[in-house]
Amino acid sequence: MSSAGLSPHHAGLLFLQGSWELMSEESDSLRTSPSAASLSESELPPPPAPAGYVCSLTEDLVAKAREELQEKPEWRLRDVQALRDMVRKECPNLSTSLEDAFLLRFLRARKFDYDRALQLLINYHSCRRSWPEVFNNLRPSALKEVLASGFLTVLPHTDPRGCHILCLRPDRWIPSNYPITENIRAIYLTLEKLIQSEETQVNGIVILADYKGVSLSKASHFGPFIAKKVIGILQDGFPIRIKAVHVVNEPRIFKGIFAIIKPFLKEKIANRFFLHGSDLNSLHSNLPRNILPKEYGGTAGELDITAWNAALLASEEDFVREFCQPGPPCDSILGQALPPEGLSSEAPCDDSMWAVKSQLYSCY
């Protein structure tokens, strides 16, 4: 029967049949697309990066991260997803950010070892909960007095390896004004700001500590209990790479301070301490003069704390969101995980003034 002789009903049926066959052929064609069928699972391209993460590393830093941190750009987001899955499976009650950029900090700090990165993440939150005097209400506006004192700042120039330089000057602290924990809060605040940069995550930081004028009475505030907590955080509870600690102008009393610190240092970190005394030439062999302020024999002008203070104060809202929001009363995973050694909030405070001064006097 010709199409001209079809009734409207039969013509409609033929049209629907033809449309179905065409759709079926297209569907079969899609299921057997040569581009998909010809690639084995191992040859498939890595998953595309989600719109939320954009790598800010230069080509040189990408190469450095590959060599030093075992970071492969083509699998970076796969590794982040693996860590995210581990958190969800093993630590379902851990109240933490799972954003790509945040988790990358922990992977880079542990050279993309998933298990060690997860433990570091757990330690990070455990440290924050175990020392509320330091981490509660941690924001720049609450530390204006410490920042104005010049106790710490970050120098405007990086070292030859690209490390930012955190400059500490304990002589600027007046103990009668506020407790030593306020200084520790300012240090942690600065580290949190620094680690937001992917450049810092790869390059790490250098610490320059100037102990000029530090007296016995001032040093006695930094006893074993405080030392264990601070070092425990820096070594095992924070995703940052400390590449060197340069100490200058240290008095004889520093031998006593270092005697308190050293038992808690891992060998790798202990070997990165350099004591220069008043020999600035020794310092310049590690940190060139053109990046140092004139206070340390440099040519980069006078030490200026205003720029870094302004950068911190401009980040007020970020810190309020991260550290000043009410959280759950207890994370079950943190109840099971022990904080790094020395960070237990129930540990007895054994740094009585007499005991600490006895240790410090022994260096004379």
**How many independent structural domains?**
2
- Strands of the largest sheet, in order across it? 1-2-3-4-5
CATH architecture assignment of the largest domain: 3-Layer(aba) Sandwich
Q: Which sequence of SSEs, written as H and E, runs from N to C?
A: HHHHHHHHEEHHEHHEHHEHHHHH
- What characterizes the major β-sheet? 5 strands, mixed
State mean pLDDT (0 to 100 scale).
82
Structure annotation, total helices: 19
Q: What is the SS-derived class?
A: alpha/beta
Layout of helices and strands:
Blueprint (H helix, E strand, L loop, with lengths): L7 H24 L2 H4 L21 H11 L6 H15 L9 H10 L4 H17 L1 H4 L8 H6 L2 E3 L9 E5 L11 H15 L3 H6 L1 E6 L5 H4 L4 H13 L5 E7 L4 H9 L5 H4 L2 E5 L2 H5 L21 H8 L2 H8 L8 H5 L16 H9 L3
Parallel strand pairs: 2-3, 3-4, 4-5
Antiparallel strand pairs: 1-2
Helix pairs in contact: 4-5, 4-6, 5-6
What keyword list fits this structure?
364 residues, alpha/beta, Helicase, Ruva Protein, domain 3, Phosphatidylinositol Transfer Protein Sec14p, 5-stranded mixed sheet, globular, disordered C terminus
Structure in words:
This protein is an alpha/beta fold and 364 residues long. It has two domains: 59-130, N-terminal domain of phosphatidylinositol transfer protein sec14p (Helicase, Ruva Protein, domain 3); 135-323, CRAL-TRIO lipid binding domain (Phosphatidylinositol Transfer Protein Sec14p, 3-Layer(aba) Sandwich). Helices cover 49% and strands 7% of the residues. The protein contains 19 helices and five strands. Strands 1-2-3-4-5 form a five-stranded mixed sheet. Helix 4 (76-90) crosses helix 6 and helix 5 (100-109) packs across helix 6. The termini are far apart. Mean pLDDT is 82; it is low at 11-44, 329-333 and 344-364. GO terms for molecular function: phosphatidylinositol bisphosphate binding. Residues 139-304 form the CRAL-TRIO domain. InterPro entries: CRAL-TRIO_dom, CRAL-TRIO_dom_sf, CRAL/TRIO_N_dom, CRAL/TRIO_N_dom_sf. This is CRAL-TRIO domain-containing protein.
